[in-house]
UniProtKB/TrEMBL annotation:
This is S-adenosyl-L-methionine-dependent methyltransferase. The keyword Membrane does not apply. It is found in: Nucleus. One of its GO terms (cellular component) is cytoplasm. One of its GO terms (molecular function) is tRNA (cytidine-5-)-methyltransferase activity. Residues 482-565 are annotated as: Disordered. Residues 61-478 form the SAM-dependent MTase RsmB/NOP-type domain. PANTHER family: NCL1 YEAST -RELATED NOL1/NOP2/FMU SUN DOMAIN-CONTAINING, RNA CYTOSINE-C(5)-METHYLTRANSFERASE NSUN2-RELATED. InterPro entries: MeTrfase_RsmB-F_NOP2_cat, MeTrfase_RsmB-F_NOP2_dom, Pre-PUA_NSUN2, PUA_NSUN2, RCMT, RCMT_NCL1, RsmB/NOL1/NOP2-like_CS, SAM-dependent_MTases_sf.
């Protein structure tokens, strides 16, 4: 439940992004932006020809693409909670900013809400950065942004990048896949949608059972968010969200950025995987009493395919694109994009939807990909393009293109593929035309593709509402299909310039061929199909086949019978690490190993992932937790998990949803690279006191668990002044009469048994009361109390709730206490642990970030920059020495 409640800690680090970003070589981005020449003759010639903009609009289009982008951000978390943080912007900061005037007397424009974003949760500001730097109200606002970003209440995100999740019609309870998810801004939006309404539902359920279970509930929970029927409908698990988001990225380092981004949402309904999306493995489901089939595979209600692209819609942030853009990038990425989309459509449930998006305006990466994928999946009878005109009515957009020409690597523009073929005949095929295929061009009149209603696609251009450029389409699966191999499709197979053996353009770092090894029936069939295809087409066409294509020739069934059990078992048993097929031919004889899967280290030498082991509901440690915290019978005991091979709770106990438990258990050792799953629920604490539970509740698990903790371990707080004391004084004393200084909670905390408890900050209408609910772990030791928040979270909260920057007080450092005595003090140790955990996470994030920045040769300053850097990296991999 509750990613709601004021989010305070359980913070995975965020790369704190200030409004003033630093560019390569430590240079202020603004300076480097201004200095960088903006223009690319080929790009301008191509888009002037194909986008169909009039002369005046063309001028606006290019002018906008050459301006720096407004800063934008989004309030994150559950809706009620996000609105509470947003209120501070509206009531505290905007009034102050609105008073500032420029030297000429004109007023500074304060941040504005993005008109088409629901509930005014997205904002942008055009204020020049020198103004932001100079004026105190801005610096207070900037502190607020940085501090809220660091605890995950605000996400910096380019506004156009917020569109794809908004058009997915994602409802609670749905099974969702984000195929190319890093760094994770859209995945964060999706995850919030998976949890929509959960806080209200859970508290309703707690209220429903309050009398029966003898547990009082808190007032004011879930207030402020009006929920539709769909959000209220996910009630089967006492209101806890039953949906699932799998966020995937093929780049290992970037997938760790993704984890950090998503961890802030503390979701037990999230899995992160690290696979090449063109070969995304089938995920097996266990048999259930209602569905006893032994070979059921996960199918998705919604899939986001925000694919790697040339990124020419992001020149406003990635100014170097002006010089780096080449027409070869789109040509090189096209085939990967088609494969990702076809794989997405295969993995959908009938009636499910894929949203395909790019931050490029090139039709080769957009309409052409849509047309190719629809054709390979069997046409419009199998896959429909849904209208988008009813989505986000205030968003200005253009329809998709119906006709377009293609620019080759030498910047020649071809109107039709027939022209290319004619030129081939006359002059031979040169390297510049090498990648061109029929399907990159607009469908021929009268062909089935010409029926595709491309006008339903959304093209968002920079000048329309001062954003970057983006392309978005919604596809719905009408029925199961058997996808055509590329070679059979009208022509996705590139013509060779003589020497070119088509390269498998997997830009990711995943192990090619994994789906054949994932233990799934689909994997087995793919192998078999690949053999058949080879036999039918023994010579030249074979070279156009890729691993992904051979992996995509069978429709997937919700439940399919295994016909060849031994073979299946062998494939399942083959460790992924041992097999790195270079071609389809290499990929065939995979059925060899009898060894159980041992995945010590993957091919790229990446870190070993600890296994996910669930512990029994009656395990001694589960029992100890249950007894100490007087857990309600409504809280499940069979979803606790640890990350070690022994399956014994050593340091941390995690918690996941039931579906994730089933998935992680069923697919263990089958080669699927799960790299994150589960919320830290309990951490082991070295405690002396008799009867004190050694498992303290971890901040990130607190919102999930707190409603089910018995009153015996709950402390309720109502006054702002009391919380302020707990925030500033890190170890308030209880001994003697000292507890009396803690006002309303003094008596309660003095009387409560030692160990971890739940501090519930309850909302009230009092002047000194809170408007929203906050829940935090509190530790009662022999002589003192400790709010279990890392120092920086305390500071952030002081700023947020009290607009206060008072330094924290550590009474252990004053009064000449013996150092040894201090070190041994339980509360002190605890605070140290909390801080050390935070530091470790921060360090990991920084390391990942630096590593990533080095790999990509770019700066990690904005979400869009991060997206683009990767796209460029991929574009250049796919298209070496294009020009
Ligand atoms: C445009 S970015 C995605 C941005 C992301 N959706 C977001 O909102 O933060 C494209 C991502 O695709 C990943 N990628 C590239 N090739 C891939 C492949 N074959 N399979 C999966 N991911 C891939 C890149 O590592 C990159 O992170």
């Amino acid at each position: 439940m509750g990613r709601g409640g004021n989010r305070v800690s359980h913070k995975a680090p965020v790369i704190v992004q200030t409004l003033i970003t630093i560019g390569r070589g430590g240079e202020d981005n603004r300076v480097s932006f201004e200095k960088t020449p903006k223009g690319n003759a080929k790009l301008e010639r191509y888009y002037n020809k194909i986008l169909g903009l009039g002369e005046e609009e063309q001028a606006e289009f290019w002018a906008a693409l050459k301006r720096e982008l407004p800063n934008s951000f989004r309030f994150a978390g559950s809706k009620g909670h996000a609105l509470a943080v947003q209120r501070q912007l509206v009531t505290r900061y905007i009034p102050e900013i609105s008073k500032i005037s420029h030297y000429d007397g004109t007023l500074v424009e304060p941040p504005q809400s993005v008109p088409w974003y629901p509930d005014a949760l997205a904002w942008w500001m055009t204020t020049p950065k020198n103004v932001v730097r100079k004026f105190p109200p801005f610096s207070a606002f900037q502190k607020y942004l940085v501090s809220e970003t660091s605890v995950g209440n605000i996400s910096r995100q380019e506004v156009v990048s917020m569109i794809p999740p908004l058009v997915m019609d994602l409802q609670p309870g749905m099974i969702v896949l984000d195929m190319c998810a890093a760094p994770g801004s859209k995945a964060a939006q999706l995850l919030e949608m998976v949890h929509r309404g959960e806080e209200q539902r859970v508290h309703q359920s707690l209220r429903d059972y309050a009398t029966e279970d003898g547990r009082p509930t808190s007032p004011g929970v879930g207030a402020g968010a009006d929920l539709d029927e769909a959000a209220l409908a996910d009630t089967s698990d006492y209101g806890r969200a039953t949906g699932l988001l799998i966020a995937n990225d093929s780049d290992y380092k970037r997938s760790h950025m993704l984890i950090h981004q998503l961890k802030r949402l503390s979701s037990p309904n999230l899995i992160v995987t690290n696979h090449d999306a063109t070969l995304y493995p089938s995920i097996k489901l266990p048999p259930t009493p209602n569905n006893p089939a032994t070979n059921r595979y996960l199918k998705f209600d919604r899939i986001l395919a925000d694919v790697p692209c040339s990124g020419d819609g992001t020149t406003r942030k990635n100014v170097n694109l002006w010089k780096d853009w080449t027409p070869g990038s789109a040509l090189g990425l096209y085939i990967t994009q088609v494969r990702i989309l076809v794989r997405a459509l295969q993995m959908l449930k009938v009636g499910g939807r894929v949203v395909y998006s790019t931050c490029s305006m090139n039709p080769v990466e957009n309409e052409a990909v849509i047309a190719s994928a629809i054709e390979r999946c069997g046409g419009l009878g199998k896959v429909e393009l849904l209208p988008t005109s009813d989505k986000l009515p205030l968003l200005k957009r253009k329809p998709g293109l119906k006709i377009w020409a293609v620019m080759d690597k030498a910047a020649r523009i071809w109107e039709t593929f027939a022209d290319v073929q004619k030129d081939d005949e006359e002059n031979g095929r040169d390297a510049a035309k090498e990648k061109l295929v029929q399907n990159m061009f607009a469908p021929l009149p009268g062909s089935p593709g010409s029926e595709i209603p491309f006008e339903r696609c959304m093209r968002v251009y920079a000048h329309q509402q001062d954003t970057g450029g983006f392309f978005i389409t919604i596809l719905e699966k009408k029925s199961e299909f058997r996808a055509k191999p590329e070679v059979e499709s009208t022509s996705d197979a590139p013509k060779s310039a003589g020497t070119a053996t088509p390269k498998f353009e997997n830009s990711g770092s995943s192990v090619a061929g994994v789906p054949m090894l994932d233990g799934s029936l689909n994997g087995l069939k793919r192998g078999a199909d690949a053999v058949e295809d080879r036999e039918e087409q023994p010579s030249s066409p074979k070279k156009f086949k890729s691993e992904s294509e051979s992996a995509e020739v069978k429709p997937e069934q919700e439940s399919v019978e295994v016909k060849s059990e031994p073979e299946f078992t062998d494939i399942a048993a083959k460790p992924v690490t041992e097999i790195t097929p270079k071609s389809v031919d290499d990929a065939q004889p995979l059925v060899r190993s009898q060894h159980p899967p041992v995945q010590q280290r993957n091919r790229a030498g990446q870190q070993f992932e600890e296994p996910f082991k669930y512990i029994a509901h009656d395990h001694l440690e589960v029992k100890s937790v249950e007894t100490f915290y007087r857990l309600s019978p409504r809280f499940p005991r069979d979803r606790f998990m640890v990350r070690n091979a022994q399956g014994e709770p050593a340091k941390t106990i995690y918690y996941t949803s039931a579906l994730i438990r089933d998935i992680l258990t069923e697919n263990e050792g089958k080669g699927i690279k799960f790299i994150h799953g589960g919320v830290k629920m309990f951490m082991k604490q070295d405690v002396q006191g008799e009867g004190v539970c050694k498992w303290r509740i971890q901040s990130e698990g607190m919102p999930i668990l707190e409603g089910y903790v018995g009153e015996e371990r709950v402390v309720r707080l109502h006054k702002k002044e009391t919380l302020k004391k707990l925030l500033i004084e890190m170890f308030p004393k209880l001994s003697g009469d000292a507890w009396k200084n803690l006002d309303e909670i003094g008596e309660r905390v003095n009387g409560i048994g030692m160990g971890c408890c739940v501090l519930r900050v309850e909302p009230s209408a009092d002047d000194d009361g809170f408007q929203e609910r906050i829940v935090m772990p509190l530790w009662r030791s022999l002589h003192s109390l400790n709010l279990m928040l890392a120092k920086e979270d305390r500071t952030a909260m002081l700023l947020r709730v009290y607009n206060d920057t008072t330094p924290l007080v550590n009474s252990h450092n004053i009064g000449g206490k013996n150092k040894q005595e201090v070190r041994e003090d339980e509360a002190f140790k605890l605070q140290r642990d909390v801080d050390v955990e935070e530091d470790a996470i921060m360090e990991e994030a920084v390391t990942d970030t630096v590593a990533n920045s080095n790999t990509l040769g770019g700066t990690i300053t904005t979400e869009a920059a991060t997206e683009l850097d990767s796209s460029q990296a991929q574009a250049s991999e796919a298209e070496p020495a294009a020009e």
